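#random but structural
TW: two for the price of one
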Amino acid sequence: MKGLIPAAGSGTRLGPFTHAMPKELLPIGDKAVIEHVVEAFVAAGITDITIVISPKKHGLSDYFGSGKRFGVNLTYVVQDERLGLANAVAAGEHVINGSSFSVVLGDNFFAPNTVLRNLKDFHQENEADVTIGVVEVYDVTRHGIIRTDGINVVDLVEKPVADEAPSKLGIAGMYIFEPGIFEAIRNTKPGYKGEYQLTDSIKVLVEQGARVIYKKIAGIHIDVGTPEDLMRANEFYLKESVRSV
C-alpha cells in the first residue's frame, strides 16, 4: 500500500503564520504538523509516500528532502491549481500506479499515531473499495458528513447546513482507497467555485454499488485550520509528552 498527503492548501485562516511558511510546517511540539502525519504512515507500514504540493510550496520538499532520514521514500507532485481535494488526489494517480493507497491530509493531527494502521487493517479485513475515518463533530458545517447503514456509507454531504446534516459523523481527513477512486474522480462534476470535492467522488462509487465503509477514529483528531486549533493540538501534545517522561 502507498500513501498520499495533500498539502497544497493556502492556509489563509492561519495567517499571519502562513505568510512565512506552509501551514503543514507549523509546529506541534517539536515537529511540523505534517511530520506527525508521516509518522502515522510509518506506524502503518506505509513508507512509499507522495506529497501533493502547490507550485509555491517548496518549503515542504526542503523540510523532508528524499524522506530518507524519516524512514520513507517521498515523491512530490504539483497541483497546478487549487481545484479541490479530489483534484489533489488525482494529481498523484501516475505515482500510485494501480495500488491501494491511503490519503491523510497534511494539516491534520491525530493521536495515537496507530489510528491509520487500524483503519488500514479494517479496510483490508472488510475487503472494501473505500474506507473513511470519521469522528463525531460538533460543527457539521466544517466537515463532510456521512449517512450510514451499519458500517456502510450510503450518502455523503460536504459541509451541510446544520439542520440538514444526515448525522454527526464527520470525515476526519483520513481514507483508504482502491484505485477505482481515480475513475470516480474523472466522473465527478465540479461544485462550488469550480472545485472537485472528494466527497462527491466517493458518492459516485456509492451510487455505483462499490463497498464504501467507515470506522470511527479512537483518540484525538484536530484539523489544524485556525490558530485556536493549532494551540489546542500543541496543548495536547505537550501534556502527553510530560506524561511520558
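TW: number two ↓
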Amino acid sequence: MTTERSAIVTGSTSGIGLAIATALAQSGHDVMLNGLGKPEEIEATRARLADQHGVEVLYSGADMSSPESVGEMVAKAEQAFGKVDILVNNAGIQHVAPIEEFPAGKWDQILAINLSASFHTIRHALPGMKSRKFGRIIQLASAHALVASPFKSAYVAAKHGIAGLTKTVALEGAEHGVTANAVCPGYVLTPLVEKQIPEQAKARGISEDAVIRDVLLAAQPTKRFVTVEEVASLVLFLAGDTAGSITGAIIPIDGGWTCH
C-alpha cells in the first residue's frame, strides 16, 4: 500500500490509543506508536499492524512527562516518515482521591502527562505542518473537559486545559491548513477506567458493581460504555480532508452525558 500521510498516536499500546492507531493503519497511514507495556507485546502489535495493513509502523518509548523525550519522539517520526501529518495526543493517567488527600506528586504527574505533553508534541510538530499547509492535531480530552466529577481534581483540571490549548492551536493554525480539535469520550471500558473502579469504590465506600451502575454509567443516558471503535472512527474522520473546516471544536462522544 502506498502511504501519503503519517501519524503519531501517543498512549497507543492499548485501549483507545491502540484502536486509533489501528484505524489509521487500516486507512493507509504510517503510524508511530507510543506507550507502556511489555517489549515483546509491543513489538508483536507493531509487527501485526505493519504486516496486516502494508504500512510502516514504528514505536517510541518516549516518556511523556519529559519534554526532551517528547521532542525526540517527534524528531524520530519526522526523520523516519519524512513528515508528521497527524498528531493524536492520547496519553493519559488517572488518580482518584479527595482533594485534601490528593498526593502533590500525583497532581504534578497527571498535569505533565495529560496536559503539558500535548503542548510539547504540538510545539515540535506544528512548524512542519504549517510549512506543508496541512496538519491534523487531535486531542483525546474527555467529558471531563466539559464537566467535573468529584475526586478527580488533577484529571479534570488537565482536561479543561486541553480544551483551551486546542482552541488556541486552532486559531494559530487556521490560515495554514492545520486543524486542532478535541474529542471528549464519556466512560470507555479501557484499562484506565477499569483501574478506577476499585479506587472509586474505596473513595465512595460502595461496591465495585455500584460504581459501574451508580457512578460511571449513571452519567451516560445510553447506559452503556462508549466503545474504542466509536472513538477511533471519529478521530479518523477528523484526520481526513473532509474535516478541513472543523477546527477548535470540543466534541463530546459520551452517550449524552454532557446533555445534563
